[in-house]
Automatic annotation (TrEMBL):
Source organism: Paenibacillus uliginis N3/975
Family: Belongs to the zinc-associated anti-sigma factor (ZAS) superfamily. Anti-sigma-W factor family.
Keyword Signal annotated: no
Pfam families according to UniProt: zf-HC2 (PF13490)
Domain Putative zinc-finger: 3-37
Membrane-spanning parts: 90-109
Record's keyword terms, sorted: Membrane, Transmembrane, Transmembrane helix
Keyword Membrane included in the entry's annotation: yes
Protein name: Anti-sigma-W factor RsiW
InterPro entries named among the record's database cross-references: Anti_sigma_zinc_sf (IPR041916), Znf_put (IPR027383)
Amino acid sequence: MDCKLAVSLMHDYLDNDLSRQQQLELKSHLLQCVDCRNRFEELEQTDMLLYSLTHHATGPSDDLADRIMGMLPQQKKQKLWLTWIKNHPAITAAALFLVVMLFSTVSFWSQENQLIVKGSELDKLIIEGNTVIIPPDQIITGDITVENGKTQVFGQVQGNLTVIDGELFQASTAHISGQVKDIDKAMDWIWYKITNLFSDVAYR
């Protein structure tokens, strides 16, 4: 028996349509031909799978399509939080901003208390250790920010003076034309940063 004839008889064998003699001839060929034997095993497995699907105990064969679809890998459902983010971009951006500000503030607070002085005309200031002094004969034009230090004002500041996590002393001769801000707490620092950020955006 050649392989072509054997393949055609395999389907009839699985359907029990072969005579006794044809069954013996096919089995004899399968014992000798490895390729045909492998093919027969594949057809037999496929036939068993179809039989189990069409004769499932949970219901009649008319729900075959439903069972086949249930066996297929299901498409991943989009996560609810991702959908919420897409539907609320403004709230998401605000929350992300607050988280970034919080982490940056915590990082700032964990650093060493190093004196930082910002502003214009810094050459008119006197710095002794962690103390910033505005002499009585000096007029500073512009804003001044002192972080992690003491500030002593004897002269004039034509602008705002901000002291962060430090001490402020104003002599009787001192004159500050702008606002004076003394920030000591972490939450005050966060609020100061947020308000300054929005003020910068508004003036741009």
